[in-house]
Amino acid sequence: MPMPPYPVCCYRPDCGRLAVYKIAARWSDGVTHELKTYALSCAECLADWLVRSRDKQAACRLALGETLEPPGVYEILRGQRDQQLTRRPDLEGIADAP
Ligand SMILES: [Zn+2]
Question: Would 29 be classed as within a structural domain?
Answer without folding.
Answer: yes
